[in-house]
Structure formats: structure tokens, C-alpha cells
Amino acid sequence: MMQAMQKNRKIKPGTLIPENILRIEAQSNYCKIYFIDRCNTVVVAKVLHLVQQKLPADMFVRVHKSHLINKQHIRHVSGTHQKIAELSNGECIVISRRKVAMLCKTANL
Q1: Can you say whether the dihedral through the CA atoms of 72, 8, 5, 37 is positive or negative?
Q2: Which of the two ends of the chain, N or C, has the fewest CB atoms closer than 10 A to its terminal CB?
Q3: Radius of gyration of the chain (CA)
Q4: Which CATH superfamily includes the segment(s) 3-106?
């Protein structure tokens, strides 16, 4: 599995384990997948909503038009005017104001 995720290698469909995905960021018609091990990322030629449909709905939440995050790795949500989700690796992701209530409800925050 680790060999398949190294940079510049192709990934076979169905080889990505959702539990190992930290977040997914949309970049136009591509998605960049970040893993919990921090050392590997994968770019796939799919739009974010198609990637989201392939993942377990109870595990991932769309917090912004360009971000999908694994609920298991949300450390906490902070901020007064602009909400920010801090992930287990220390990264901070801005939450859309329309998604705040849904995130807090589904992630039990």
C-alpha cells in the first residue's frame, strides 16, 4: 500500500483506504488527497463531488466548496466570525458559514 502512494506513481482504483485519508482539497477539475502519514499526497483527475460519492458519507464531511475532511481527524472547531477546523496534524481548514451548523451536528462538536 505504501509503495502505491509514493509520489509520481499511479494508484489503482479501489486501493485507497478511507481511514488513511485526512482531507481532500479540490483544485479545479482535480482533487489532491492528503493522508494521515503527511509524507504522501495523490492528485486524481476527478471533481470533488465525484470523489465524495465514492467515500463513506458517515466518515467524511464537506466543510467548504473546496474541502472534504475526515471527521475522525477533527481536533476542534474555533473562531467567532470565521470558523476554523483544526485537524489532528495541526492543519487548519476554513469552514463555510453555511456548513458550520451541519458540521457541528454530524461531527458531534
Answers
A1: negative
A2: N
A3: 14
A4: LytTr DNA-binding domain (2.40.50.1020)
